[in-house]
Design a protein that fits this description.
The complex is a heterodimer of chains A (about 240) and B (about 325). Chain A folds into two domains: about 5-140, Thiolase/Chalcone synthase (Peroxisomal Thiolase, Chain A, domain 1, 3-Layer(aba) Sandwich); about 150-235, no CATH class. In chain A, about 20% of the residues lie in helices and about 35% in strands. Chain A has four helices and twelve strands; from the N terminus they run E-H-E-H-E-H-E-E-E-E-E-E-E-H-E-E. Chain A starts with a strand and ends with a strand. In chain B, strands 9, 10, 13, 14, 15 and 16 form a six-stranded mixed β-sheet that branches. In chain B, strands 1-8-7-4-6 form a five-stranded mixed β-sheet, sandwiched between helices. In chain B, strands 2-3 form a two-stranded antiparallel sheet. In chain B, a hairpin with a 3-residue loop joins strand 15 and strand 16 (about 320-330). In chain B, helix 3 (about 50-65) crosses helix 4 (about 95-105) and helix 7 runs parallel beside helix 9 (about 260-275). Chain B starts with a strand and ends in an 8-residue tail after the last strand. The chains are: A alpha+beta (about 240), B alpha/beta (about 325).
Chain lengths: ~240, ~325
């Protein structure tokens, strides 16, 4: 069983997403005496990238910025594997579950989960105030990932896609989004559907860190997709 | 629980475009002949109204039918497409493409997208493999629809003498690819180390075109190819236990950038393990990104070259620069598909 060992987040403000995530990951490693070279798996989740970039994975750019495993292959060289996972605001749950699934086969000491978004270009309306989030995942992390549940029964036809505008592509919607307001019901943290991935994780993890026992993070996406991730919080 | 590939398929839209018709001699600067340089004879392009979703759905339907798996037993769908482009050149942001694929196929399963460039499908199969082994799911559909050729036309609109990074965009083609991953009593899939040599992450960038609808791709083609080839021999040495291990494969299928690049890879295989004879290459699809291995498998199937239980090695590369090898046994009865 794997869990979050430590985490760090910050509002991105006017920084680039890459610079922000590089900075908080370096701080995170320093604070927790983690050797970045021990990170064998990096997974990023987010919805918006610079100019709606499709390749390579954002995680690969971050791996280069952090200079982790950036060496040619030799008989004993140490490497890292990086890729992105996405599903709108539900992306963090798939990303966490994917890390938990791959952790044993990658055979590393730590995995790095990052989340964050950036304004794709100046023509795209940007009502968001994105947060960058980074977490170190390890076998003995105190915020343990238990199981996930996904429910698509209430899925509606809300779709967001790019549409060519004047010079750049901007975002176009098919209908109004499904709105869920943030609230806490007993041990269940229900997230706002308006939060982007970084905010989803930072708000939940900050709340969960002060809890004990089993807690649930529930995300209802803008198009009605629901995901729930159950966690066990190991107290002091 | 162990795993197997129970079905695979590639869908190539029937719109076959010859290289000389799109990129005739004189298109490239300095008298370079595209066809002679790359050995790409042709590529396929979407039909009107088709986009990434339609390409993915066509391939998925074929792969599911071949696997004999009931749709109701598919518990996971991962879309690994680099492109999520509709026929109207709108790139999907949210929800994930996998959700649209599930709706189109009437599959009720956990679904999400991964992005790992041309290594996407092998990454998806790795994730499915872990979930099946741990008993979380029964079967998984790993699927991609690559509607790429608008990037080819974007590049043709540029002066290629001054935009040499657009040159690699001329090598691409459209395709859909799908694999069904299932449980098995015996080990039928084996993965070699996944790794990202991120010092090369800036060498190939695909994003939205500026000044026109659709995608654009900018690549330092030679640098990227050299980085892959320089590391290929070391990757093979690290991951194959012996010459016999390497030679036990009936077909070695590399990511298809160009047939010429694949033949350079075959020479490295030969230098490392003594023979490059099993390396397969096709010249009628161009580079179809994450679906390129499926395109070769489909071509070999049509040529009657695939037999039950033969061993296949997929050597996957993706911009990033990512590496992963995957060895698997072909399903029993593949000859009858």
């Amino acid at each position: 069983m794997v869990g979050i060992l430590a985490f760090e987040f910050e509002p991105i403000k006017r920084k680039s997403l890459l610079k922000s995530l590089k900075g908080i990951t370096q701080r995170l490693c320093k604070k927790n005496a983690i050797n970045p070279a021990d990170i064998g798996l990096m997974v990023h989740t987010g919805t918006y990238r610079q100019n709606f970039r499709q390749e390579p994975a954002f995680a690969a750019h971050l791996q280069q910025a952090l200079d982790i495993g950036c060496a040619n292959i030799g008989p004993t060289s140490k490497h890292t594997f990086s890729f992105d996972v996405s599903d709108g605001a539900c992306g963090p749950h798939h990303a966490l579950e994917t890390i938990a699934d791959l952790f044993p086969v990658i055979g590393c000491k730590y995995a790095l989960l990052t989340a964050g978004d950036c304004r794709p270009n100046k023509e795209t309306p940007w009502p968001h105030k994105p947060i960058s989030f980074a977490a170190i995942i390890s076998e003995d992390g105190p915020l343990q990932i238990l199981d996930t549940r996904f429910d698509y029964e209430q899925e509606n036809d809300f779709t967001s896609s790019t549409k060519f505008n004047k010079k750049y592509h901007t975002e176009a919607f098919t209908s109004k989004p499904h709105i869920t307001k943030h609230r806490v019901e007993e041990n269940c943290f229900i997230a706002s559907s308006a939060w982007l991935c970084g905010e989803q994780l930072s708000r939940f993890v900050e709340w969960a860190s002060s809890q004990n026992g089993t807690v649930t993070h529930r995300i209802e996406n803008k198009n009605g997709r629901v995901s729930e991730l159950n966690w066990r919080v190991k107290g002091e | 629980m162990k795993t197997q590939i129970s079905g695979f398929a590639c869908y190539l839209p029937p719109n076959l475009i010859k290289s000389e018709d799109v990129i005739p001699f004189g298109t490239l600067p300095r008298g370079i002949d595209f066809k002679r340089l790359t050995k790409i004879e042709a590529h396929h392009e979407v039909l009107e109204g088709q986009g990434s979703l339609e390409l993915a759905v066509e391939a998925a339907q074929k792969a599911i039918a071949r696997s004999g798996v009931n749709k109701e037993e598919i518990d996971l769908v991962i879309s690994c497409s680099v492109t999520k482009m509709s026929g109207e050149l709108q790139n999907l942001i949210e929800p994930c493409l996998a959700s649209h694929i599930c709706s189109a196929l009437d599959i009720k399963a956990q679904n999400f997208d991964i992005a790992n460039a041309c290594l996407g499908m092998v990454t998806g199969i790795l994730i499915a493999d872990r979930k099946i082994r741990s008993g979380k799911i029964r079967h998984a559909l790993i699927v991609a629809g690559e509607y790429l050729t608008e990037a080819l036309y974007e590049a043709l609109g540029k002066n290629l003498l001054f935009n040499q990074k657009a040159f690699s965009s001329l090598t691409i083609g459209d395709a859909g690819g799908a694999y069904v991953v299932s449980g098995s009593d015996e080990e039928r899939i084996q993965f070699h180390e996944p790794m990202t040599l991120a010092q090369h992450s800036q060498l190939c960038i695909g994003d939205a075109a500026v000044g026109r609808p659709g995608p654009a791709m900018r690549t330092y083609g030679k640098k990227l190819q050299n980085a892959a080839l320089e590391n290929l021999g070391a990757y093979f040495k690290r991951n194959f236990k012996s010459q016999e291990d390497y030679a036990s494969h009936d077909h070695i299928i590399s990511h298809q950038t160009t047939p010429r690049a694949v033949s350079k890879g075959a020479l490295i295989a030969e230098k490392t393990w003594g023979s490059g004879d099993a390396v397969r290459s096709i010249s009628h699809t161009g580079n179809t990104a994450s679906t390129s291995h499926a395109a070769v498998l489909e071509t070999l199937l049509e040529d009657g070259a695939l037999l039950s239980n033969q061993k296949v090695y997929l050597m996957a590369f993706g911009s990033g620069l990512s590496f992963m090898g995957m060895s698997f046994h072909l399903p029993s009865g593949v000859e009858t598909w």
